[in-house]
Amino acid sequence: MVRVRFAPSPTGNLHIGGARTAIFNWLYAKVKKGKFILRIEDTDKERSQQQYVDEILESLKWLGFDWDEIYYQGQRLDIYRQFAERLLKEGQAYEQEAPGAEGAGRPKAIIFKIASEKVKIADIIHGEIEFDTEVIKDQVLIKSDGTPTYNFACVVDDAAMQISHVIRGDDHISNTPKQVILYKALGFPLPQFAHLPLILGKEGGRLSKRTGATAISDYRKMGYLSSALFNYLLLLSWSPGGNREVIETEEAIRLFDIKNVNKTSATFDMDKLNWLNNQYLKKADPEKLLEQLLPSLADKGYIQPDNFDRDYLIALVKLFQARLSTLNDFADWADFFFIDEITPDHEAKEKFLSQDFSQEFKLFLDRLDALESFDIHSIEVSFREMVIQLNVPAKALIHPIRVALTGKTIGPGLFEVIYYLGRERTKRRLLRWIKRS
Ligand code: GLU
Protein backbone atom coordinates (compact mmCIF):
# COMPACT_ATOMS: atom_id res chain seq x y z
CA MET A 1 0.00 0.00 0.00
CA VAL A 2 1.40 3.36 -1.00
CA ARG A 3 1.38 5.86 1.85
CA VAL A 4 2.88 9.28 1.23
CA ARG A 5 2.96 12.38 3.34
CA PHE A 6 3.25 16.10 3.04
CA ALA A 7 4.95 17.49 6.12
CA PRO A 8 4.87 21.29 6.26
CA SER A 9 6.31 23.26 9.15
CA PRO A 10 3.80 25.91 10.18
CA THR A 11 6.45 28.61 10.45
CA GLY A 12 5.13 30.46 7.43
CA ASN A 13 2.46 30.34 4.76
CA LEU A 14 2.25 27.63 2.14
CA HIS A 15 4.56 28.72 -0.65
CA ILE A 16 5.16 27.60 -4.22
CA GLY A 17 7.80 25.02 -3.30
CA GLY A 18 5.68 23.43 -0.57
CA ALA A 19 2.61 23.33 -2.77
CA ARG A 20 4.62 21.64 -5.51
CA THR A 21 5.77 18.96 -3.04
CA ALA A 22 2.18 18.49 -1.88
CA ILE A 23 1.00 18.08 -5.47
CA PHE A 24 3.49 15.35 -6.27
CA ASN A 25 2.69 13.44 -3.10
CA TRP A 26 -1.04 13.78 -3.57
CA LEU A 27 -0.86 12.76 -7.21
CA TYR A 28 1.28 9.76 -6.42
CA ALA A 29 -1.24 8.62 -3.81
CA LYS A 30 -4.08 9.07 -6.32
CA VAL A 31 -2.25 7.21 -9.09
CA LYS A 32 -1.40 4.31 -6.78
CA LYS A 33 -4.71 4.40 -4.96
CA GLY A 34 -2.76 4.91 -1.77
CA LYS A 35 -3.11 7.28 1.15
CA PHE A 36 -2.06 10.91 1.40
CA ILE A 37 -1.12 11.92 4.90
CA LEU A 38 -0.67 15.39 6.23
CA ARG A 39 1.81 15.88 9.03
CA ILE A 40 2.16 19.25 10.64
CA GLU A 41 5.75 19.55 11.85
CA ASP A 42 5.15 22.00 14.65
CA THR A 43 7.82 21.05 17.15
CA ASP A 44 9.52 24.41 16.93
CA LYS A 45 7.29 26.13 19.46
CA GLU A 46 8.77 29.54 18.96
CA ARG A 47 8.36 29.72 15.21
CA SER A 48 5.24 27.59 14.69
CA GLN A 49 1.95 29.45 14.74
CA GLN A 50 -1.66 28.38 14.56
CA GLN A 51 -2.34 31.05 11.98
CA TYR A 52 0.09 29.31 9.61
CA VAL A 53 -1.48 25.90 10.26
CA ASP A 54 -4.85 27.41 9.29
CA GLU A 55 -3.41 29.11 6.26
CA ILE A 56 -1.64 25.96 5.04
CA LEU A 57 -4.76 23.81 5.42
CA GLU A 58 -6.88 26.45 3.72
CA SER A 59 -4.47 26.72 0.78
CA LEU A 60 -4.27 22.95 0.40
CA LYS A 61 -8.07 22.74 0.31
CA TRP A 62 -8.21 25.55 -2.21
CA LEU A 63 -5.77 23.66 -4.44
CA GLY A 64 -8.21 20.77 -4.33
CA PHE A 65 -6.44 18.38 -1.95
CA ASP A 66 -8.05 16.02 0.44
CA TRP A 67 -6.07 14.04 2.98
CA ASP A 68 -6.72 10.69 4.57
CA GLU A 69 -5.01 11.31 7.91
CA ILE A 70 -3.58 14.31 9.71
CA TYR A 71 -1.04 14.38 12.56
CA TYR A 72 0.56 17.12 14.62
CA GLN A 73 4.08 16.41 15.81
CA GLY A 74 3.52 18.66 18.81
CA GLN A 75 1.10 16.02 20.14
CA ARG A 76 3.59 13.19 19.75
CA LEU A 77 6.51 14.35 21.89
CA ASP A 78 6.29 11.29 24.19
CA ILE A 79 6.71 8.96 21.24
CA TYR A 80 9.95 10.61 20.13
CA ARG A 81 11.30 10.51 23.67
CA GLN A 82 10.55 6.79 24.01
CA PHE A 83 12.53 5.98 20.90
CA ALA A 84 15.39 8.24 21.92
CA GLU A 85 15.53 6.53 25.31
CA ARG A 86 15.60 3.17 23.61
CA LEU A 87 18.67 4.26 21.63
CA LEU A 88 20.16 5.57 24.87
CA LYS A 89 19.63 2.21 26.59
CA GLU A 90 21.13 0.37 23.67
CA GLY A 91 24.22 2.55 23.88
CA GLN A 92 23.61 4.04 20.43
CA ALA A 93 23.07 7.47 21.92
CA TYR A 94 24.33 9.50 24.86
CA GLU A 95 23.16 12.39 26.99
CA GLN A 96 24.70 15.80 27.11
CA GLU A 97 23.97 18.60 29.52
CA ALA A 98 22.87 21.88 28.10
CA PRO A 99 25.78 24.32 28.22
CA GLY A 100 25.50 26.85 30.98
CA ALA A 101 22.85 24.92 32.93
CA GLU A 102 23.73 24.16 36.52
CA GLY A 103 22.42 22.17 39.46
CA ALA A 104 20.43 18.96 39.77
CA GLY A 105 17.81 18.11 37.15
CA ARG A 106 19.71 19.95 34.47
CA PRO A 107 18.10 19.64 31.06
CA LYS A 108 19.86 17.10 28.91
CA ALA A 109 19.95 16.57 25.21
CA ILE A 110 19.99 13.05 23.72
CA ILE A 111 22.59 12.64 21.01
CA PHE A 112 23.08 9.86 18.50
CA LYS A 113 26.56 8.48 17.83
CA ILE A 114 27.41 8.45 14.17
CA ALA A 115 29.66 5.62 13.06
CA SER A 116 31.70 6.06 9.96
CA GLU A 117 30.14 4.22 7.04
CA LYS A 118 29.02 4.68 3.46
CA VAL A 119 25.30 5.17 2.99
CA LYS A 120 23.67 4.46 -0.33
CA ILE A 121 20.30 5.87 -1.20
CA ALA A 122 18.29 4.65 -4.15
CA ASP A 123 16.45 7.77 -5.19
CA ILE A 124 13.57 7.27 -7.63
CA ILE A 125 14.37 10.50 -9.45
CA HIS A 126 18.14 10.82 -9.10
CA GLY A 127 19.16 7.18 -9.07
CA GLU A 128 21.75 5.98 -6.58
CA ILE A 129 23.34 8.59 -4.33
CA GLU A 130 26.23 7.70 -2.06
CA PHE A 131 27.18 9.54 1.11
CA ASP A 132 30.13 9.15 3.41
CA THR A 133 29.02 9.57 7.03
CA GLU A 134 32.56 10.52 7.98
CA VAL A 135 31.57 14.15 7.47
CA ILE A 136 28.40 13.86 9.55
CA LYS A 137 28.66 14.90 13.18
CA ASP A 138 26.85 13.14 16.03
CA GLN A 139 23.16 13.98 15.71
CA VAL A 140 20.97 15.57 18.34
CA LEU A 141 17.78 13.52 18.69
CA ILE A 142 16.08 15.35 21.52
CA LYS A 143 17.12 18.90 22.35
CA SER A 144 17.65 19.94 25.94
CA ASP A 145 14.27 21.68 25.86
CA GLY A 146 12.66 18.28 25.30
CA THR A 147 11.68 18.77 21.66
CA PRO A 148 12.93 16.42 18.94
CA THR A 149 15.06 17.55 16.02
CA TYR A 150 13.55 17.47 12.56
CA ASN A 151 15.57 14.49 11.36
CA PHE A 152 14.68 12.35 14.35
CA ALA A 153 10.96 13.17 14.50
CA CYS A 154 10.78 12.71 10.75
CA VAL A 155 12.21 9.18 10.90
CA VAL A 156 10.13 8.11 13.89
CA ASP A 157 6.99 9.41 12.22
CA ASP A 158 7.67 8.15 8.73
CA ALA A 159 8.15 4.70 10.23
CA ALA A 160 5.19 4.92 12.63
CA MET A 161 2.95 6.24 9.88
CA GLN A 162 4.18 3.48 7.55
CA ILE A 163 5.20 5.93 4.87
CA SER A 164 6.20 3.95 1.79
CA HIS A 165 7.56 6.86 -0.28
CA VAL A 166 9.20 10.03 0.98
CA ILE A 167 8.72 12.61 -1.75
CA ARG A 168 10.19 16.01 -0.93
CA GLY A 169 12.33 18.84 -2.25
CA ASP A 170 16.01 18.51 -3.16
CA ASP A 171 16.82 20.86 -0.29
CA HIS A 172 16.37 17.84 2.00
CA ILE A 173 18.78 15.59 0.17
CA SER A 174 21.54 16.27 2.70
CA ASN A 175 19.20 15.17 5.50
CA THR A 176 18.47 11.85 3.88
CA PRO A 177 21.71 10.01 4.84
CA LYS A 178 21.26 11.18 8.44
CA GLN A 179 17.76 9.79 8.37
CA VAL A 180 18.81 6.52 6.77
CA ILE A 181 21.30 5.97 9.60
CA LEU A 182 18.54 6.50 12.12
CA TYR A 183 16.20 4.08 10.34
CA LYS A 184 18.90 1.45 10.56
CA ALA A 185 19.69 2.18 14.20
CA LEU A 186 16.02 1.84 15.10
CA GLY A 187 15.55 -1.25 12.96
CA PHE A 188 12.88 0.39 10.81
CA PRO A 189 12.40 -0.60 7.17
CA LEU A 190 13.51 2.09 4.73
CA PRO A 191 10.93 3.95 2.66
CA GLN A 192 11.70 4.83 -0.96
CA PHE A 193 13.00 8.33 -1.52
CA ALA A 194 12.23 10.75 -4.34
CA HIS A 195 13.79 14.21 -4.24
CA LEU A 196 12.14 16.81 -6.41
CA PRO A 197 14.36 19.33 -8.23
CA LEU A 198 14.60 22.84 -6.86
CA ILE A 199 12.50 25.67 -8.16
CA LEU A 200 14.59 28.71 -9.04
CA GLY A 201 13.67 32.30 -9.73
CA LYS A 202 13.91 33.66 -13.24
CA GLU A 203 17.42 35.00 -12.72
CA GLY A 204 18.63 31.66 -11.51
CA GLY A 205 18.78 32.24 -7.76
CA ARG A 206 16.46 31.07 -5.04
CA LEU A 207 12.83 32.01 -5.36
CA SER A 208 12.33 35.45 -3.92
CA LYS A 209 9.18 37.41 -3.31
CA ARG A 210 9.78 39.21 -6.58
CA THR A 211 10.29 36.04 -8.60
CA GLY A 212 7.28 34.19 -7.34
CA ALA A 213 7.96 32.93 -3.82
CA THR A 214 4.67 34.33 -2.76
CA ALA A 215 2.20 32.43 -0.62
CA ILE A 216 -0.39 30.32 -2.40
CA SER A 217 -3.06 32.45 -0.71
CA ASP A 218 -1.53 35.50 -2.41
CA TYR A 219 -1.89 33.87 -5.81
CA ARG A 220 -5.50 33.27 -4.93
CA LYS A 221 -5.91 36.94 -4.03
CA MET A 222 -4.18 37.96 -7.25
CA GLY A 223 -6.87 36.13 -9.21
CA TYR A 224 -5.25 32.87 -10.23
CA LEU A 225 -7.47 29.83 -10.55
CA SER A 226 -6.48 26.91 -8.37
CA SER A 227 -6.73 24.57 -11.37
CA ALA A 228 -4.26 26.70 -13.34
CA LEU A 229 -1.83 26.99 -10.44
CA PHE A 230 -2.01 23.24 -9.88
CA ASN A 231 -1.32 22.65 -13.57
CA TYR A 232 1.54 25.12 -13.56
CA LEU A 233 3.26 23.66 -10.49
CA LEU A 234 2.92 20.19 -11.92
CA LEU A 235 4.53 21.23 -15.20
CA LEU A 236 7.41 22.83 -13.32
CA SER A 237 8.95 19.44 -12.71
CA TRP A 238 7.06 17.00 -14.87
CA SER A 239 5.75 16.75 -18.37
CA PRO A 240 3.49 14.17 -20.03
CA GLY A 241 5.51 14.59 -23.23
CA GLY A 242 4.35 15.82 -26.60
CA ASN A 243 4.59 19.49 -25.59
CA ARG A 244 1.31 19.22 -23.75
CA GLU A 245 0.82 22.11 -21.37
CA VAL A 246 -2.80 22.20 -20.32
CA ILE A 247 -3.33 19.16 -18.14
CA GLU A 248 -6.29 19.10 -15.84
CA THR A 249 -6.05 17.29 -12.54
CA GLU A 250 -8.12 14.29 -13.65
CA GLU A 251 -5.88 13.81 -16.64
CA ALA A 252 -2.74 14.29 -14.58
CA ILE A 253 -3.89 11.41 -12.38
CA ARG A 254 -4.14 9.25 -15.51
CA LEU A 255 -0.80 10.26 -16.99
CA PHE A 256 1.45 10.88 -14.00
CA ASP A 257 4.46 8.68 -13.50
CA ILE A 258 6.95 9.67 -10.84
CA LYS A 259 9.78 8.18 -12.90
CA ASN A 260 9.27 10.97 -15.43
CA VAL A 261 9.93 13.76 -12.97
CA ASN A 262 12.74 16.02 -14.18
CA LYS A 263 16.10 15.76 -12.47
CA THR A 264 17.14 19.32 -13.14
CA SER A 265 15.92 22.43 -11.41
CA ALA A 266 12.91 24.28 -12.71
CA THR A 267 12.51 28.00 -13.29
CA PHE A 268 9.46 29.77 -12.03
CA ASP A 269 8.10 31.83 -14.88
CA MET A 270 5.31 34.26 -14.14
CA ASP A 271 4.53 34.80 -17.84
CA LYS A 272 3.96 31.12 -18.31
CA LEU A 273 1.70 31.03 -15.26
CA ASN A 274 -0.27 33.96 -16.66
CA TRP A 275 -0.59 32.21 -19.99
CA LEU A 276 -1.82 29.03 -18.35
CA ASN A 277 -4.23 30.94 -16.13
CA ASN A 278 -5.65 32.56 -19.24
CA GLN A 279 -6.14 29.12 -20.80
CA TYR A 280 -8.21 28.09 -17.79
CA LEU A 281 -10.09 31.39 -17.58
CA LYS A 282 -11.06 31.13 -21.25
CA LYS A 283 -12.86 27.86 -20.83
CA ALA A 284 -14.16 28.39 -17.31
CA ASP A 285 -17.87 28.54 -16.58
CA PRO A 286 -18.70 32.28 -16.53
CA GLU A 287 -21.16 31.79 -13.68
CA LYS A 288 -18.43 30.25 -11.53
CA LEU A 289 -16.03 33.03 -12.43
CA LEU A 290 -18.66 35.58 -11.48
CA GLU A 291 -19.09 33.93 -8.07
CA GLN A 292 -15.39 34.46 -7.47
CA LEU A 293 -15.52 38.02 -8.76
CA LEU A 294 -18.50 39.25 -6.77
CA PRO A 295 -16.69 40.08 -3.52
CA SER A 296 -14.08 42.24 -5.24
CA LEU A 297 -16.66 43.94 -7.44
CA ALA A 298 -18.64 44.78 -4.30
CA ASP A 299 -15.47 45.93 -2.53
CA LYS A 300 -14.72 48.31 -5.33
CA GLY A 301 -18.26 49.64 -5.15
CA TYR A 302 -18.96 48.40 -8.69
CA ILE A 303 -22.02 46.49 -7.55
CA GLN A 304 -24.32 46.42 -4.55
CA PRO A 305 -23.66 43.06 -2.89
CA ASP A 306 -27.37 42.37 -2.42
CA ASN A 307 -28.76 43.98 -5.52
CA PHE A 308 -27.20 43.30 -8.90
CA ASP A 309 -28.24 41.94 -12.25
CA ARG A 310 -26.64 38.50 -12.39
CA ASP A 311 -27.39 37.85 -16.04
CA TYR A 312 -25.91 41.16 -17.05
CA LEU A 313 -22.72 40.46 -15.09
CA ILE A 314 -22.43 36.98 -16.57
CA ALA A 315 -22.66 38.54 -20.04
CA LEU A 316 -19.83 40.92 -19.11
CA VAL A 317 -17.69 38.06 -17.82
CA LYS A 318 -18.23 36.23 -21.13
CA LEU A 319 -17.20 39.35 -22.98
CA PHE A 320 -13.85 39.54 -21.17
CA GLN A 321 -12.85 36.09 -19.97
CA ALA A 322 -10.84 35.14 -23.05
CA ARG A 323 -8.51 38.10 -22.57
CA LEU A 324 -7.87 37.89 -18.83
CA SER A 325 -4.58 36.73 -17.35
CA THR A 326 -6.01 36.84 -13.87
CA LEU A 327 -9.49 37.20 -12.47
CA ASN A 328 -8.44 40.54 -11.02
CA ASP A 329 -7.85 41.84 -14.54
CA PHE A 330 -11.61 41.81 -15.01
CA ALA A 331 -12.21 44.81 -12.75
CA ASP A 332 -9.47 46.74 -14.58
CA TRP A 333 -10.62 45.85 -18.07
CA ALA A 334 -14.33 46.18 -17.45
CA ASP A 335 -14.28 49.19 -15.11
CA PHE A 336 -16.06 51.42 -17.66
CA PHE A 337 -19.18 49.29 -17.33
CA PHE A 338 -19.35 50.23 -13.67
CA ILE A 339 -17.99 53.78 -13.52
CA ASP A 340 -19.66 56.61 -15.34
CA GLU A 341 -16.91 59.19 -15.06
CA ILE A 342 -14.34 57.46 -17.22
CA THR A 343 -11.22 59.40 -18.04
CA PRO A 344 -9.22 58.15 -21.01
CA ASP A 345 -5.53 57.95 -20.27
CA HIS A 346 -3.44 60.69 -21.76
CA GLU A 347 -1.92 58.61 -24.53
CA ALA A 348 -5.25 57.21 -25.71
CA LYS A 349 -6.69 60.68 -25.81
CA GLU A 350 -3.74 62.10 -27.74
CA LYS A 351 -3.77 59.29 -30.22
CA PHE A 352 -7.47 58.98 -30.95
CA LEU A 353 -9.35 61.97 -29.63
CA SER A 354 -7.13 64.95 -30.31
CA GLN A 355 -9.09 65.61 -33.47
CA ASP A 356 -12.60 67.05 -33.26
CA PHE A 357 -15.13 64.29 -33.93
CA SER A 358 -18.21 66.35 -33.05
CA GLN A 359 -19.83 65.84 -36.40
CA GLU A 360 -19.19 62.13 -36.65
CA PHE A 361 -20.20 61.45 -33.07
CA LYS A 362 -23.37 63.49 -33.55
CA LEU A 363 -24.22 61.50 -36.63
CA PHE A 364 -23.66 58.22 -34.83
CA LEU A 365 -25.70 59.39 -31.89
CA ASP A 366 -28.64 60.17 -34.13
CA ARG A 367 -28.28 56.77 -35.76
CA LEU A 368 -28.33 55.02 -32.40
CA ASP A 369 -31.41 57.00 -31.48
CA ALA A 370 -33.11 55.97 -34.67
CA LEU A 371 -32.48 52.23 -34.15
CA GLU A 372 -35.69 50.34 -33.72
CA SER A 373 -33.98 47.42 -32.13
CA PHE A 374 -30.92 48.17 -30.05
CA ASP A 375 -29.02 44.93 -30.61
CA ILE A 376 -25.42 44.15 -31.48
CA HIS A 377 -26.13 43.40 -35.13
CA SER A 378 -28.26 46.51 -35.75
CA ILE A 379 -25.67 48.70 -34.06
CA GLU A 380 -22.97 47.31 -36.31
CA VAL A 381 -25.03 47.64 -39.50
CA SER A 382 -25.85 51.23 -38.70
CA PHE A 383 -22.20 52.02 -37.96
CA ARG A 384 -21.06 50.42 -41.23
CA GLU A 385 -23.62 52.40 -43.21
CA MET A 386 -22.38 55.57 -41.59
CA VAL A 387 -18.71 55.05 -42.48
CA ILE A 388 -19.72 54.34 -46.09
CA GLN A 389 -21.77 57.50 -46.09
CA LEU A 390 -18.83 59.47 -44.63
CA ASN A 391 -16.42 57.69 -46.91
CA VAL A 392 -13.92 56.93 -44.12
CA PRO A 393 -12.41 53.59 -43.10
CA ALA A 394 -14.20 51.93 -40.16
CA LYS A 395 -11.15 52.09 -37.93
CA ALA A 396 -10.97 55.86 -38.31
CA LEU A 397 -14.05 55.99 -36.10
CA ILE A 398 -13.93 52.71 -34.19
CA HIS A 399 -10.91 53.78 -32.16
CA PRO A 400 -12.13 57.28 -31.24
CA ILE A 401 -15.55 55.93 -30.27
CA ARG A 402 -13.96 53.16 -28.23
CA VAL A 403 -11.76 55.61 -26.32
CA ALA A 404 -14.72 57.93 -25.73
CA LEU A 405 -16.82 55.07 -24.39
CA THR A 406 -14.28 53.02 -22.50
CA GLY A 407 -11.25 55.24 -21.94
CA LYS A 408 -9.13 52.44 -23.41
CA THR A 409 -7.61 51.67 -26.77
CA ILE A 410 -8.26 47.94 -26.62
CA GLY A 411 -11.06 45.77 -25.34
CA PRO A 412 -13.92 43.61 -26.56
CA GLY A 413 -15.67 44.30 -29.87
CA LEU A 414 -17.01 47.84 -30.06
CA PHE A 415 -20.57 46.88 -30.96
CA GLU A 416 -20.79 44.55 -28.02
CA VAL A 417 -19.42 47.28 -25.78
CA ILE A 418 -22.11 49.68 -27.04
CA TYR A 419 -24.82 47.09 -26.60
CA TYR A 420 -23.87 46.28 -23.03
CA LEU A 421 -23.33 49.92 -22.12
CA GLY A 422 -26.84 50.59 -23.37
CA ARG A 423 -28.17 53.38 -25.51
CA GLU A 424 -28.36 56.04 -22.82
CA ARG A 425 -24.89 55.58 -21.38
CA THR A 426 -23.37 55.41 -24.85
CA LYS A 427 -25.09 58.63 -25.84
CA ARG A 428 -24.01 60.41 -22.68
CA ARG A 429 -20.38 59.43 -23.18
CA LEU A 430 -20.33 60.48 -26.82
CA LEU A 431 -22.00 63.77 -25.96
CA ARG A 432 -19.08 64.68 -23.72
CA TRP A 433 -16.94 64.90 -26.87
CA ILE A 434 -19.36 66.87 -28.98
CA LYS A 435 -18.57 70.55 -29.01
CA ARG A 436 -21.55 72.87 -28.97
CA SER A 437 -21.48 75.21 -31.95
N1 GLU B 1 8.91 20.00 7.75
C1 GLU B 1 9.84 19.76 6.71
C2 GLU B 1 9.78 20.91 5.73
O1 GLU B 1 8.91 21.71 5.82
C3 GLU B 1 9.51 18.46 6.04
C4 GLU B 1 10.57 17.89 5.18
C5 GLU B 1 10.26 16.47 4.77
O2 GLU B 1 9.34 16.33 3.94
O3 GLU B 1 10.85 15.55 5.30
O4 GLU B 1 10.60 21.09 4.89
Write a structural description.
- The structure is a single chain.
- By secondary structure, the protein is an alpha/beta fold.
- Helix content is 45%, strand content 12%.
- The protein is built from 18 helices and 12 strands.
- A 3-stranded parallel sheet has the order 1-2-3. Strands 4-5-8 form a 3-stranded antiparallel sheet. Strands 6-7 form a two-stranded antiparallel sheet.
- The longest helix is centred in the N-terminal third of the chain and has 16 residues.
- It starts with a strand and ends in a 6-residue tail after the last helix.
- The mean pLDDT is 94.
- The site of glutamic acid has 7 residues, from loops.
What is the CA–CA distance across the termini? 84 Å
Q: Sketch the topology as an H/E string, one letter per element.
A: EHEHEHEEEEEHEHEEHHHEHHHHHHHHHH
What gross morphology would you assign?
Answer: elongated
Helix content: 40-55%
What's the story with the biggest beta sheet? Answer: 3 strands, parallel
